[in-house]
Amino acid sequence: MRIWNERLPDVPLTLTTVTAAEAPALLRGREADAGFVRLPIDRTGLSAIPLYTETTVVVVPKDHLFAAVEEVSAAELADEIVLHPLDDTLDWETPPGRPAFERPATTEDAVELVAAGVGVLVVPQSLARLYHRKDLTYRTVTGVPESRVALSWAEEEVAPDLVEEFIGIVRGRTVNSSRGRTPTPPQPKQKRADKGGAPRKTAGKPGGKNPRGGSGAPKSGAKRGKPRGRK
Questions:
Q1: Cα angle for residues 18, 162, 40 (degrees, 5° grid)
Q2: HEC sequence for the chain
Q3: Cβ–Cβ contacts within 10 Å for residue 145, how many?
Q4: Is residue 63 within 8 Å of residue 133, measured between CB atoms?
Q5: 3-39 pLDDT, tens per residue?
Q6: Is residue 59 within 8 Å of residue 67, measured between CB atoms?
Q7: pLDDT (tens digit, 9 = 90+) per residue, 45-98?
Q8: How many other C-beta atoms lie within 10 A of the C-beta of residue 96?
Q9: Cα 54 to Cα 56: distance, rounded to the nearest angstrom
Q10: Other residues' Cβ atoms within 10 Å of the Cβ of residue 31
Q11: What is the pLDDT of residues 206-223, one digit of tens each?
């Protein structure tokens, strides 16, 4: 947002928060020009460029045993009730741990259940931060799926130049990048001599006029005055 406002102050940029499941349909319906999605998605009518892979974490109460370590393996979740919300963003073959009696409707609901001591929750780190509570913490989990984040837009975008500009900002291109905005043209160099005329003079160079208005360098062989004695 900051970089966009610096480069295109006359073009407003509006951010809209949606769930991972809603984002692709929003882009296809032209309700948004570009958006961040979690792979894999149905690529029909959409272009996408992967950006990064998120760390997967387990959300637990602060007094949980896992809070005392830096990292947890998938095998260590075997005896835990692991909540699996209906909007889960991880591509599980089989979720770890023991399933809850009922799947929470959303990740936010699952976080509330973790706070109530019902179970633990495995999510991408950004979701653990989004729904952070003072009574909860999270630790990295190994041996589980990770979430890949991509920038996506409709293949036939309405404003291709602006979408390309946004892609450039997200990927860290500089303002003069050949794939970003039109580069600032280089300033022409000042000519050293007028075409067909005499070279320009530069103050202070040998043979030129002294900047203080005096003569040039002393001629070879000129006599120097005798220094005065001090009384």
A1: 40
A2: CHHHHHHCCCCCCCCCCCCCCCHHHHHHCCCCCCEEEEECCCCCCEEEEEEEECCEEEEEECCCHHHHCCEEEHHHHCCCEEECCCCCCCCCCCCCCECCCCCCCCHHHHHHHHHCCCCEEEEEHHHHHHCCCCCEEEEEEECCCCCEEEEEEECCCCCHHHHHHHHHHHCCCCCCCCCCCCCCCCCCCCCCECCCCCECCCCCCCCCCCCCCCCCCCCCCCCCCCCCCCC
A3: 16
A4: no
A5: 999 999 999 999 998 888 899 999 999 899 899 999 9
A6: no
A7: 999 999 999 999 999 999 999 999 999 999 999 999 999 999 999 989 899 999
A8: 20
A9: 6
A10: 12
A11: 444 444 444 444 444 444
The residue type found at 124 is P
Structure tokens at 8: 């295109």
